[in-house]
């Protein structure tokens, strides 16, 4: 039987780089294809295998600035030397049509969304330990050492802010974290 999404409250997922947000979101979407994941705009260069319009909209800094100036982003922030933002119109459309929306964004963006989309449920994904976080980010092998260091420094601030969130999930065992996420989002597999 098809999975059933019982409520359409927007959900924001935040957590330090390397904690497993992308992995959790990918699993969640396999199990709940009705969920719509916002595709962010970014000035970061694509990683190997990343596709424009699927993983991100990859923009020049100039184009990103235009989006900011024209009010095209619901929120935006700088993270580890690049800009990231959530296109406003696709979100508004999905919410207007009652489609459940998922945003995977960093801390400053989540803070902005608390003002612009106060009905959103905000979940913080934490690692079992800082050492494990560092191991995961290194094992992923997508960043140079300098970028890893920036992300780990940023992770300290993000970890300190977890109490601001509606709920915290510790991503230790992936299956348990996924089950917790489904429960918090009130997603049912029938
Ligand atoms: P993020 O999107 O938060 O930056 P990723 O989803 O890219 O993080 O995960 C970072 C790395 O950690 C990946 O190599 C992923 O396979 C691994 N990972 C994710 N969740 C777990 C987990 N629960 N246990 C062990 N490794 C994990
Ligand atoms: P990455 O470069 O690893 O894909 O993403 C770096 C960080 O940017 C992650 O914490 C991710 O959640 C965040 N991010 C991705 N898209 C957005 C966005 O649209 N807005 C904000 N504020 N952060 C984002």
Task: Describe what this molecule looks like in 3D.
The chain has about 190 residues and is α/β, with parallel strands linked by helices. It has a single domain, classed as 3-Layer(aba) Sandwich (Rossmann fold). The chain is about 40% helix and about 20% strand. It has helices at about 20-30, 60-70, 90-95, 105-115, 130-140, 145-160, 175-185; strands at about 5, 10-15, 35, 40, 55-60, 75-80, 80-85, 100-105, 120-125, 165-170, 185-190. The strands form three sheets. A five-stranded parallel sheet has the order 3-8-2-9-10, with helices on both faces. A four-stranded mixed sheet has the order 5-4-7-6. Strand 6 and strand 7 form a beta hairpin. It starts with a strand and ends with a strand. Mean pLDDT is about 95; it is low at about 1-5. Adenosine-5'-diphosphate (ADP) binds near residues 19 and 171.
List the helices and strands and how they pair.
Layout: E1 4-5, E2 11-14, H1 21-31, E3 36-37, E4 41-42, E5 57-58, H2 61-69, E6 73-79, E7 82-87, H3 88-96, E8 101-104, H4 107-116, E9 121-126, H5 130-140, H6 145-160, E10 167-170, H7 174-184, E11 187-188
Parallel strand pairs: 2-8, 2-9, 3-8, 4-5, 9-10
Antiparallel strand pairs: 1-11, 4-7, 6-7
This protein binds adenosine-5'-diphosphate and guanosine-5'-monophosphate.
